[in-house]
Amino acid sequence: MSKSARPRPPRWRRSPFLGVPEELVVEILVRLSATCLIHLKRVCRSWRTLISSPEFARYQLERSIAYSDAQIAYSGQLRRLRRIGFLPLHSLLDNPSSSAEVVCVEAERHYDIVGSCNGLLCLLVRDSRSTSVLLWNPCTGFTSEWLQTGGFIITCGFGYDHVNHKYKFFAAVKMPGSHEIVSKIFTFGVNHYWKTIENPSLLFNSLQCIIMIDLIGKSMKGTVNWLVPLANEEDVIVYIDLGRETYGELCLPQRDPDDNLGIFPVIGVLRNCLSVGFDHKKTHWALWLLNENQCWTKLAIIPYHPVFRFARLRTLYISDDDVLLLIGRNDKLYLIYLNDGRIVLPMIDSSSDEDVTPMSKGIGTRTLAVYYPSLVMV
């Protein structure tokens, strides 16, 4: 997200901070949490106008990201359980030996989380014939209109088009009563619309079957990305540019012939960069980041540990002081301290998730997304 100008609050006749410069009022309010700001909209009309403005929402989001006010949002694995959980990341990173508490929000239906962008969660509902999608801001309560896909989603992704400043949802949809798979992009907003685009040959084989490893694409800087393993060839990343609505390909870092090539690479997003991790010489795990120049740079070499051996490690988050949160063997969450090599299994109190396996024992089939609370609406 580009840097936005600091919003100027409207002039009010009776200010809660009489004599305080307007710019200082903005700086005070923007440092508060999005949840707190929702309540402060009731203080006076001028604050409601200020806090409800898109400029203030963008400024608050930038601070939230800069100061790592991140959470893990997840949906449970049982479709009869209609709730979404939120786990503050700072509680995991600051004191992993103390139980970080999960907060659950009851929902009307069971949702899968496709992804999160600027404080919006993209939620997916599946049934036997079709799938539906909507956007939800947990802080403000904003929800978009339901999006009907017209078929069963084979793969999908959600992200922000920085060129046109629009939120978009990509889906490869199997049409009812046929074997046809159609690729579509939906643009959210007042004038929302579907657009059909050409299917990329690498995402579908001749039998119209998806051959990706990860069925939900990774969103990063206006693109949605998938790892595509190719028989007898180097694996590639196929992406769709949400602004241009075109496809492209990226090569992965060169792998050593001594690597365990039977363990597929895993792509993710760390520090707003595309990441990839894979087995390295059957003794280590290599983690790479794609920099601004579209070159892969090595972030870390992680020695094998019994809890990681022969596992596909899925990265979720990395802190400014190089603490890596990932999903390892048996679907458990781990913290790796890259500076000294420590590996910690954080304690998580998920007792609010009744009838579900505790998260400390594994995330199971939960769908996860890194989420920054915000005031953003479409």
Short description:
It is built from five helices and 26 strands. With 378 residues, it is mainly beta.
Detailed description of the structure:
This protein has 378 residues and is mainly β. It contains five helices and 26 strands. It is globular, with a radius of gyration of 22 Å. It has two domains: 22-64, no CATH class; 65-371, 6 Propeller (Neuraminidase). The strands form seven sheets. Strands 4-2-1-26 form a four-stranded antiparallel sheet. Strands 5-6-7-8 form a four-stranded antiparallel sheet, with no helix packed on it. Strands 9-10-11-12 form a four-stranded antiparallel sheet, with no helix packed on it. β22 and β23 form a beta hairpin. It has helices spanning 22-30, 34-40, 45-52, 54-66, 89-94, and strands at 71-75, 83-88, 100-101, 103-106, 112-117, 120-126, 131-136, 147-148, 152-161, 166-174, 181-187, 193-197, 218-220, 223-228, 236-241, 246-251, 266-270, 273-280, 284-290, 296-303, 314-318, 323-327, 333-337, 342-344, 348-349, 367-371.
CATH C-level class of the largest domain is Mainly Beta
Structural class, by secondary structure, is mainly beta
CATH topology of the largest domain: Neuraminidase
**Strand arrangement, major sheet:** 4-2-1-26
- What is the CATH superfamily of the largest domain? Kelch-type beta propeller
Total DSSP E strands: 26
For the largest beta-sheet, the strand count, sense and barrel status come to: 4 strands, antiparallel
Number of domains: 2
Helix content: 10-25%
- Radius of gyration, in Å, reads 22 Å
Distance between the termini: 15 Å
Count of alpha/pi helices: 5
Shape field: globular
- Tell me the fraction of residues in β-strands, as a range: 35-45%
Low-confidence runs: 10-14, 206-210
The pLDDT mean sits at: 83
CATH architectural group of the largest domain: 6 Propeller
Organism: Stylosanthes scabra
Domain F-box: 14-60
InterPro entries: F-box-assoc_dom_typ1, F-box-assoc_interact_dom, F-box-like_dom_sf, F-box_dom, SCF_F-box_component
Protein name: F-box domain-containing protein
